[in-house]
Amino acid sequence: MRLSRFFLPILRDAPADAQIVSHRYMLRAGMVRQASAGIYSWLPLGLLVLKKIEQIVREEQDRAGAVEMLMPTIQSADLWRESGRYQDYGKEMLRIQDRHKREMLYGPTNEELITDIFRYSIQSYRDLPMNLYHIQWKFRDEIRPRFGVMRGREFYMKDAYSFALGYAAAVHAYNQMFVSYLRTFARMGLQAIPLRAETGPIGGNLSHEFIILAETGESAVYCHKDLLDLDISTTSVDYDGDLQSVVDYWTDLYAAADEKHDPDTCPVAPEDLVEAKGIEVGHIFYFGSKYSEPMGAVVSGPDGKEVPVEMGSYGIGVSRLVGGIIEASHDDDGIVWPEAVAPFDVGLINLKASDEACAVACESLYGKLLAAGRSCLYDDKDDSAGTKFARMDLIGLPWQLIVGPRRLRTGMVELKNRKTGERVEISPESALSRLIDQQIG
Question: What percentage of the chain reaches a pLDDT higher than 70?
Answer without folding.
Answer: 97
